[in-house]
Amino acid sequence: MTVAITGASGGLGRRVAELLLNQMLPADLLLLTRTPDDLKDLAKRGVDVRKASFKNPTGLKADLQGVERLLMISADAGPKRLELQRQAVAVAKTAGVEHVVYTSMAQPSSDNPSFVVPDHAATEQALRESGMAWTFLRNNLYAEVAVSAAEAAIRAGKLVTNAGDGGTAYVSRHDCARAAAAVLATDGHEKTAYDITGPQAVTQAELASMVAEVTGESVELVGLPDDAYFDHLLDAGVPQEVADVMSSFGEATREGFLGKVSTDVADLTGKPPAALRDVLERALKR
Q1: pTM of the model
Q2: Which domain holds residue 117?
């Protein structure tokens, strides 16, 4: 069986590739990336690494010939993401790919206010309509996002948020990779959407407390309404498109869309996901 991964030089794609190399022959793995030099170490192990992009459908179609399972890692957010992803789905179909595993997001329903929901929901629909087998990995927010927020809060002495009392079931990138590798390496996942989450939903107040406990640094929690939080991000130098996404995640958290806790990571891999507290300790403990 041949497995291909798009976006393979990114943090998630590389981890999935490394895990798969413990379970399959290097010759059966194809890594597609815009920056193949970043994967020279894996190429030296016998993995087929090729330069590829959703923006080059002709080249992508040629690369996907003979691929049975494809991990389609969602493209970077942007005005053309949905167009490119729909095109990639069509290319995979014409190339003969049998099964596409797509990295989606938590609760991609029409009432979820997250800025990125429409792209993910429409890509899921394109896969349902494609005739190929599909699996959706609905990844919650990375625990590494919380680490970055914690580091910023330590520097500023305050954790600014618009998430209210809502919880987020943060999941580490490594656990997302473990789940993806398990789906790619085993059978029986067709027409299934998995909720890839951490073991608990954590509020921003709880995050602030964890940071203080782990680092000894006192962090004040500052809650803001959506508009004020958006302006705060802009004042901090965050680009507008990123501020849109961050603000919408806070709103989605507040409304309960990121708080669902699932056992899917443990069910798929046989090992529970890391708790956010453990991720923070590894990243922040001094």
Answers
A1: 0.96
A2: 3-139
